[in-house]
């Protein structure tokens, strides 16, 4: 699910994208991005039972898919990217932040840690 939110007060746009595996869209230039980055990929499932691992992989955005989504966007006006919905079991917030920052060249914030 995703929303493109426009503030008339500041004339800024925010993209909010969560509970999705893939977002094959290119959006207009935005100022802020809040995007799900739930897990590190299939290898991060470890001891998770097969049913749960399959559900996570099919229904939530991986780090690689998050980066692919971001690189399809016009990032020229982006002030910050906030990573949301990171799994406690299958995500590594600092590694995710570093990977997204390296790929995009933008400030990346882990939601809840700002």
Could you explain how this protein is built, in words?
The protein has 114 residues and is α/β, with parallel strands linked by helices. Helices cover 27% and strands 20% of the residues. The protein contains 3 helices and 5 strands. It has helices at residues 50-59, 63-71, 93-104; strands spanning 2-6, 13-17, 32-36, 80-84, 108-110. The chain has a 5-stranded mixed β-sheet, with helices on one face. α2 (63-71) packs parallel to α3.
Topology overview:
Layout: E1 2-6, E2 13-17, E3 32-36, H1 50-59, H2 63-71, E4 80-84, H3 93-104, E5 108-110
Parallel strand pairs: 2-3, 3-4, 4-5
Antiparallel strand pairs: 1-2
What would the keywords be for this entry?
114 residues; alpha/beta; 5 strands; 27% helix; 20% strand
Give a short synopsis of this structure.
The protein is of the alpha/beta class and 114 residues long. The chain has helices at residues 50-59, 63-71, 93-104; strands at 2-6, 13-17, 32-36, 80-84, 108-110.
